[in-house]
Known about the structure:
- It is a single chain.
- Helices cover 53% and strands 19% of the residues.
- It has 157 residues and is α+β, with helices and mostly antiparallel strands.
- The chain has a four-stranded antiparallel sheet, covered by helices on one side.
- Strand 2 and strand 3 (112-120) form a beta hairpin.
- The longest helix is centred in the N-terminal third of the chain and has 73 residues, at 2-74.
- The radius of gyration is 33 Å and the shape is elongated.
- The mean pLDDT is 85.
Amino acid sequence: MAEQTSRNKVNIGLSSLILIFIVLCLSTFGLLSLSSARGDLELAERGAQAAKEFYEADSKGQQWLAGSDRMLQQMAGRSLEEKLEALAAKPGNGYDEQTGLIFTEIPMERGQSLHIDLELKEGDKRYEIRSWYVYDSGEYEIDDTVKVWDGKDRSGT
């Protein structure tokens, strides 16, 4: 009878250890899944915010383009040089003498800007959009305090 009692205790102990191990594994996988889901949510929120910022800047760009078009319509019959001077004098606009393009920069979050270039034309087609893109306009400095091996040994060979 003593032998039967000890055999039952061993079986109960082994099954308890297996059950504890399974619970620990499931808990670990559950926490990993939760952590992954939280990271996915943050990534989705950042993507949504970036898309919102882009479309806000794009909307401002469309408004700028509509304003420039109205100004060009009002100046119908004037020379191309007069139109260039008038658009370049408008606040927020610039003129690139090398390319002959009128441009504007619309700032966005995280150091980005929307850049739009217009080329003025004669006749019914008042302008042509030459570029419309987002670029990184933030100032940054390259950290060169860490010495990086340049592929040469110390003797310079």
